[in-house]
Hints:
Layout: E1 2-7, H1 13-26, E2 34-39, E3 45-48, H2 52-56, E4 66-68, E5 70-72, E6 75-77, E7 88-89, E8 92-95, H3 106-113, E9 117-118, H4 123-130, H5 132-141, E10 149-153, H6 160-166, E11 171-175, E12 185-187, H7 193-204, E13 208-213, E14 218-226, E15 231-240, H8 247-252, E16 256-259, H9 266-282, E17 287-295, E18 301-307, H10 317-324, H11 329-342
Parallel strand pairs: 1-2, 1-8, 8-9
Antiparallel strand pairs: 2-3, 3-4, 5-6, 6-7, 10-13, 11-12, 11-13, 14-15, 14-17, 15-16, 17-18
Amino acid sequence: KLAVLFGGQSSEYSVSLHSVASMLRNLNRDKYDLSLVGITKEGRFLEYTGDIDHIEHDTWNTPELTTPVAWVHGGYVRPESDEPAAVRALDTVFPVLHGKNGEDGTLQGLMEIMNIHCVGCDTLSSAMIMDKDITHIVLDAQGIPTAKYVCLKAGIPYSAEEILQVIPLPWIVKPCNAGSSYGVHKVDTLAEFDEAAKDAFHWDGRGKILVEECIPGFEIGCAVMGNLEPFAGDVDEIEIHGGFFDFAGKYEMKDSAIYCPARISPEKTEEARALAVAAYQAMGCSGFTRVDMFLQPDGVLVINELNTVPGMTATSRYPTMMEKAGLPFAKLLDDLIALSLEKEVGRC
């Protein structure tokens, strides 16, 4: 008994719709007693009974196709339905939700309280990874290389000149709690900083932003999955012609290209896979996560960030890296669902 969750209250609502549409088209649906639950931008949970196209085109939220649901122990009920309020029992949920209230541990915590298995990372690791400041703190404590950074908090005075004493320009300015490159800016001069910081604070929502050193080299990523014994898939490479891999680059491939496998040596690929697993374990991940890192000109690898609910379209980076490692998309989805059921009930 599987429920797939989509939509959500974050700025990445539209990304979720495209991810879940592609995922559902590749899911072995005959293996599951499937329910679909959409979450509106206002945070309402609605059981959805329409087709995939309506999800993809954001026309799913209509009275004819949806029924409000409320979560209870072991599943959900339909309190406004004419039918008896029987519990729709669930074994696990698959949250295809990006960003706030979906990827940040809040939804995972709800499932833990309701004693429902959940695909992916648990509450703690999801929350830590969503906050890039906390991710830095944990990885630094474990000796895993990350970029030099300064965390700025709303209400606490700071100046660009003070940051310059710690980190030389150029900088990457980003929200601590956002994804899909919303609010991320490359800052080359002090004159650009205030506007970049203002926009990053706008997208963060929790009053924290990072100012990171701009790492030379290029970005690579590695798909990792598993619970106690993680498996690293293939490694991909991002080629960009702008300052960083922004929203248009990620979802429209504007001025960017992705190569999988990455155009690096077999030895460096294995080093990247090992570092990805080390970061995965340091952050307490389970289920699946994409680990992004930089490969510098001197060959040194530096972790950029982790993504606990990466894009899940058939052409997204995570499924592509796993397919290159011998795990087709449909089998990947089956395995991720199976991994969720390995864990203690009520623990994502």
